[in-house]
């Protein structure tokens, strides 16, 4: 029994003496240069989001260089399967400074092939790609209004890339085609609300309806990609008539 207690004590002592060494290998998020830390450590410890950024940048770099490895393709699939991953990937793809804003060609075939895979043909991914079109088109007009030429150029370039991506997939993704129609129908409704010649009762009903749409505490399940969902999107972003026109033009440009 004594030997057993001594043995356990020695193991605990050794573990305690090793603890500072183990802890010293864990990056300190306040002082660490994450570029010098291995990807495994970033994922396991303080900055898992860094893995997502790394994967997105790596995939975009590989596409620019002419192709994706099997590992790149797996990374891209994983990115496209989560909301955070999609956001980071499309941000990198649409806004990268490595692209010539005056020479934005067709999307890489490697990207299109993966987007056409059955596991990714989802309503939420289609919605995300159309949101990219709408938000960048509206942003370009807003930056033009405030005289920010740099950001206007970035938003215009992002709009062009988003449009080309959607256009290349129209006819390939049924959810994308249907959601584009619903998005346009929602714009029709919003544009009609700017008509000041409507009767007072109609306008009062619209005010209450718009308040309901903009209430973020209400969760309308199962409406992804519907006209109601796109109306809520437009209401929450408070797009004016000119911005709605810019979004409509961008959607028109998405036609194959």
TrEMBL record:
Signal peptide positions on this chain: 1-18
Keywords carried by this UniProt record: Coiled coil, Signal
Chain coiled-coil ranges: 166-193
Protein name: Uncharacterized protein
Protein species of origin: Coccolithus braarudii
């Amino acid at each position: 029994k004594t030997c057993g207690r001594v043995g356990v004590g020695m193991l605990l002592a050794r573990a305690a003496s090793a603890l500072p060494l183990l802890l010293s290998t864990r990056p300190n998020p306040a002082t660490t240069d994450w570029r010098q830390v291995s990807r495994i450590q970033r994922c396991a410890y303080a900055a898992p989001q860094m893995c997502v950024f790394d994967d997105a940048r790596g995939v975009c770099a590989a596409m620019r260089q002419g192709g994706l490895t099997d590992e790149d393709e797996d990374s891209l699939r994983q990115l496209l399967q989560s909301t955070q991953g999609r956001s980071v990937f499309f941000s990198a793809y649409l806004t990268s400074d490595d692209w010539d804003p005056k020479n934005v060609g067709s999307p890489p075939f490697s990207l299109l092939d993966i987007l056409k895979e059955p596991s990714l043909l989802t309503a939420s991914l289609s919605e995300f790609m159309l949101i990219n079109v709408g938000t960048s088109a509206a942003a370009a007009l807003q930056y033009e209004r405030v005289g920010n030429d740099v950001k206007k150029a970035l938003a215009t370039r992002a709009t062009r890339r988003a449009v080309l991506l959607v256009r290349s997939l129209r006819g390939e993704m049924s959810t994308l085609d249907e959601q584009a129609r619903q998005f346009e129908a929602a714009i029709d409704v919003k544009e009609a609300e700017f008509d000041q010649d409507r009767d007072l009762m109609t306008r009062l009903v619209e005010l209450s309806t718009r308040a309901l749409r903009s209430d973020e505490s209400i969760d309308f399940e199962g409406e992804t990609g519907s006209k109601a969902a796109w109306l809520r999107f437009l209401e929450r972003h408070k797009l004016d008539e000119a911005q709605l026109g810019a979004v409509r033009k961008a959607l028109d440009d998405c036609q194959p």
